[in-house]
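Work package 3, deliverable 3.1, input record:
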Amino acid sequence: MRILQIMARINFMKLININYLTPLAAFYNYTDLGQFGLPNIINKIPGFNNSQTSAELIFKTDSQGQVIFNDYFRYSFSQVFLDNYGGIVFSSCTTLILHLRSLLVKVVCKCFKNKNSKIKKILMATSHSFEKSVLITLLVSRYSYLCSALILNYAFLPINGAYQQISLGFAILYTIIIVFFWVLCQLLLWQKQGQTEIYSTYA
Amino acid sequence: MTIWALFVNFIIILVLELLRKWVIVQLSVLIVLNVITILITVPKKVFKTAANRITVIGTELGFIIINVLFLVMYSLENSGSYQVRLGLSWSTVGANVAIILFQIVIKIVEFHRLRKEKKREERKQKQGSLKRTNDDSQIQLQKYNNFGTFKVDVEKKSSKIGKPFRLLN
């Protein structure tokens, strides 16, 4: 998970508007993991690639509405949240379906009468490991992409089509998730600090 | 530290996307953020294991080097010194690869350390349980011996008195 996070951070350095010559550009091309696994199927919704162009002070956009960050190597991102993060949204949806499957596995496991059944043990182990890692991995390892997609979406607010409106809906949903995640981390930190203070007063 | 990591990553993306026109400011802010992260990481309370601290410090140092290389590259952009810029480009590739390898190496070393520690603890527990069983058996043996001598004494006394001596109910 940490490696994926670092890889994303390394790759985001390519957005700096410098002519860093071919070796580094080739390195960035080879190490870019993009949207991590599953393709962005959500872009089948009508209205894809129909974003508005704008000549704002901070951003530079091309004729197709892509926000250009590096003038020399034309590294760009879309204004629409689902263009940048759709693959990960799709992965998250499939993961949630799999999560429901793991809940189903638990129900099935209760039907096993034999407590030492090997099949039951394997099913339980897979569902436990799945619950622990996958959702957090998806959220944290692609965190940089999520932040980037949210910033661009809120900077341009494209709502000129069904696809863009659905995209905005997903952006709001993911904003709520990310804020919830931040608050949760902060609460955990406070709890941890409280515990250490209690220990130090009793020590 | 998780909240700080999330916050810093968010700020980094903000800086990268909003300050694209001011490259020097962008890189300076990134360097400052890296330095702040290192300073926050230095106290021992922040991380439970030294490996995590080393990983974060190493990674941030790597990113500081990359930012400095970018700054130099940007300042040399209009000077026409192609060879120097090519060298700097390769150095940046090296720094990036070093960061990735550093992460992997630290993970492997930490994994081996934890495994060794676990084995040592298991061995200690085994030795402790063995010692405990030895002690228990010795105590039992001693009790038995004491009981035996007591029995012999009682038998001797009872033979002197000429009456049978009841030990137990």
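The two ends of chain A are 37 Å apart (CA to CA).
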